[in-house]
Amino acid sequence: MRGAAEMRGLALDVLAALERAGLADVARALHDRVFSCSINALLESYEENSVVRWRFKPMAELLLRELKQLSTAQNMPVAERRRRIEWTFEMAGF
Question: What three-state secondary structure class fits 53?
Fold first, then answer.
């Protein structure tokens, strides 16, 4: 599946960042709330140079990128990170 390496890389980066930040419970929530969704809810196909590729749907990708950013925000207290992470899950529809 073309595009799979990029999606896998992003997912693994987010999970690793959460683990390093001591947010293993958020990593589990990410699995339960996002990665357990159907493929149709998370992925979309597109054509690039006459080749069909796959990518995360915009809200799923935005969620993952925001979780990575929040997990690495060193100047933000953990309680505030957790509040923003929950808000991000809710706003993304997960």
Answer: strand
| Under 8 Å between Cβ of 35 and 94 | no
pLDDT at 3 over 90: no
Which CB contacts under 8 angstroms, 24+ apart, belong to 2-6? 2/51, 2/52, 2/53, 2/54, 3/53, 3/54, 3/55, 4/54, 6/55
The set of residues, in sequence order, having a beta carbon less than 8 Å from that of 19 and lying 6+ positions away, is: 27
Predicted TM-score of the model (pTM): 0.89
Query: How many domains would you assign to the chain?
Result: 1
Q: What is the pLDDT of residues 18-67, one digit of tens each?
A: 999 999 999 999 999 999 999 999 999 999 899 999 999 999 999 999 99
- Domain span at 78: 4-91
